[in-house]
Known about the structure:
By secondary structure, the protein is mainly beta. The protein has one helix and five strands. It has one helix at residues 11-18; strands at 2-7, 23-24, 32-38, 42-50, 55-64. The chain is elongated, with a radius of gyration of 12 Å.
Amino acid sequence: MAEFRTDRAGVGAWLAATCPAGEPAYSCEVNVCVRASYDEVLFVDVTIAYEDGETALVRVEAFDL
């Protein structure tokens, strides 16, 4: 798992460029949750929590079956 903070204004563009095949997760406990599947073997989960008006906390987790 990796996590980092970034500018809230640019996080949507980053997500679209990083996980263009991502689908909204079934349930989400933060502001944005996306799951991308690669050949249904490798999965990447990205969650984004808006911390304040300028900052977003991004968490990226990859796993395989």
